[in-house]
Amino acid sequence: MAEPVSPLFRSIAGAAPGIAMVAMFLLVIGGIMLIRRGADTRQKGMLMLICAAVLFANVLIWTL
Fold first, then answer.
1. What is the pLDDT of residues 16-48, one digit of tens each?
2. How big, in percent rounded to 5, are the helix, strand and coil portions of the chain?
3. Measured between alpha carbons, how far is 41 from 45 in angstroms, rounded to an integer?
4. Which terminus in the chain has less CB density within 10 A, N or C?
C-alpha cells in the first residue's frame, strides 16, 4: 500500500511553483539587463530569457 505523503513534502510541493516564478522574474530582469549591456553579453542574456520561458512552461504544467 502507498504511504501518505509527508506534510514536509506537501509544503515543499506547494512552495515550488512560487519559488520558480520568482526565479523566472529574476531571469527575465537579468536577461534584459545583459542584452542591453552590449554585444559580448547578448548571448548570455538570450539564454537567460530562454531559461525563463522553460521555467514558466514547467510551472504551467505543474499547476494544470
1. 999 999 999 999 999 999 999 988 999 999 999
2. 90, 0, 10
3. 6
4. N
Tell which residue, 54, 4, 52, has the closest CA to residue 25: 52
In Å, how far are 19, 56, 64 from 10, measured between CA atoms? 15, 21, 17
Are the CB atoms for 55 and 20 separated by under 8 Å?
A: yes
Residues sharing a CB contact under 8 Å with residue 10, sequence separation 6 or more, in sequence order: none
Q: At what angle do helices 42-63 and 7-37 cross, to 10 degrees?
A: 150
Unique residue bearing C-alpha cell 554585444: 39
